[in-house]
Design brief:
The protein is built from 20 helices and twelve strands. By secondary structure, it is of the alpha/beta class. The protein folds into three domains: 3-214, Rossmann fold (3-Layer(aba) Sandwich); 227-318, Tyrosyl-Transfer RNA Synthetase (Orthogonal Bundle), CATH 1.10.240; 338-410, Structural Genomics Hypothetical 15.5 Kd Protein In mrcA-pckA Intergenic Region, Chain A (Roll), CATH 3.10.290. A hairpin with a 3-residue loop joins strand 11 (396-401) and strand 12 (405-410). The longest helix has 16 residues, at 90-105. It is elongated. The model has no long low-confidence stretch (mean pLDDT 92).
Length: 411
């Protein structure tokens, strides 16, 4: 299967500006392509992984990725369907840009090219912007774009309205300086992608650039992918722990599993087909979900963090925490209720402080009924002092009531 057909099979292609040229470039040549990321936050989310995984596939087939960090466009804000974005300061935008670049560098091989559009857009004065670029954009054409149309009724500032021009300037700059022939983006960027193609045609007089988009990643029920009960799933492990990410994908529905395996992993086509077949035969074993969770966490955080996430998963299921290393406890701090304890407390006070019990009487009843364990050992004495309990790494103690109610005590 050639590269273009592989991308289509994986669901990574929606819109194509020139189908014949796209096939020729991707299947027969080695070209530079670019993907842009605006630094609207300190981290990307799992929703951005489709573009990153696709870059890896193109790179594997000899194409050269150019990652554009939008230090300038992030200051303007791509129009949302509902309301104006909150404006970033220059300092915030550049700070976020640095963090996102570092994040993507960790996921891409060394021969990836990184650029920041602040380096060229910040040098364009107002007169040059209007004469050299704005003159090439017809307002009626810009108003016809989907996102702009949806905002006309509620109102859109000229700042966000001009975003399309800035993104088009990016592609023109990369086309002229790095010979970037292809732009990839999500389907919500299609209007900006085609505007860039039009600007290249008008300024350079060439029609050999190609734009491609991919569908936005949604769940089978149409809801947004990458959201958990606590909010977005971030690629930064300080914002979303590898354990939380592992659990999210472990709980993928059968309706979503095929789509996610194709879009979010580097598994070969034959392996994905075999996994899906195995899962259909024994759905209760959730082979595909386990492999998906393993592949995504390993891709984003590495083998070591995957092992820790699996250790935490096993410990919370079995109640045995004896094999956890310190990094596993650090992940537990992000997923369990954490309570500050001290050596002067007894077990009843610790249970109340951790909200595993609501009163001294209830705490004693839980202990006397055998429902309370500390570090995996059942507690039978209601006067047990916390300074008599050995701490993991001189800091941690695991409190449990029943089978599923946990708290992490920290000294």
């Amino acid at each position: 299967m050639n590269l273009f057909d592989e991308l289509v099979w994986r669901g990574m292609v929606k819109d194509v500006s020139n189908l014949d040229e796209a096939r020729k470039m991707l299947n027969e040549r080695s070209v530079k392509f670019y993907v842009g990321y605006d630094p609207t936050g300190e981290s990307l989310t799992v929703g951005h992984m489709v573009q990153i995984v696709r870059m890896r596939y193109l790179q594997k087939h000899g194409h050269i990725p150019v990652v554009l960090i939008g230090g300038a466009t992030g200051l303007i804000g791509d129009p949302r369907e509902t309301s104006e974005r909150k404006m970033l300061t220059v300092e915030n935008s550049l700070h976020n840009a640095g963090k996102i670049e570092k994040q993507i560098r960790s996921l891409m091989p060394e021969n990836t090219i990184f650029v920041n559009n602040y380096d060229w857009i910040s040098k364009v004065d107002v007169i040059s912007f209007l004469r050299d670029y704005g003159k090439n954009f017809n307002v009626a054409y810009m108003l016809a774009k989907d996102t702009v149309q949806k905002r006309i009724e509620t109102g859109i500032s000229y700042t966000e309205f001009s975003y399309m021009i800035l993104q088009s300037m990016d592609w023109l700059h990369l086309y002229q300086t790095l010979d970037v022939k292809i732009q990839f983006g999500g389907s919500d960027q299609w209007g900006n992608i085609t505007s860039g193609l039009e600007l290249i045609r008008k300024v350079v007089g060439e029609n050999d650039a190609v734009g491609l988009s991919s569908p936005l990643l949604l769940k089978a029920d149409g809801t947004k992918f990458g959201k958990s009960e606590s909010g977005a799933l971030w690629l930064d492990k300080e914002m979303t722990s590898p354990y939380e990410m592992y659990q999210y994908f472990l709980n993928t529905s059968d309706n979503d599993i095929e789509n996610y395996l194709k879009l979010l992993t580097l598994l070969e086509r034959e392996e994905i087909i075999a996994l899906l077949e195995e899962s259909r035969e024994k759905p209760e074993l959730r082979f595909a979900q386990k492999r998906l969770a393993e592949e995504v966490v390993k891709f984003v955080h590495g083998e070591k963090e995957l092992e820790v996430a699996q250790m935490v998963t096993d410990a919370l299921f079995s109640g045995d925490f004896s094999k956890l290393d310190e990094s596993a406890y650090q992940q537990l701090e992000k997923v369990l209720d954490v309570v500050k304890l001290n050596n002067e407390m007894n077990i009843v006070e610790a249970l109340n402080a951790s909200k595993l019990s609501s009163s001294n009487r209830e705490a004693r009843e839980f202990i006397q009924s055998g429902a309370v364990t500390v570090n995996g050992s059942k507690v039978s004495e209601t006067n047990l002092m916390m300074n008599d309990i050995p701490l993991a790494y001189n800091k941690y103690v695991i409190l449990r009531r029943g089978k599923k109610k946990y708290a992490l005590g920290v000294f």
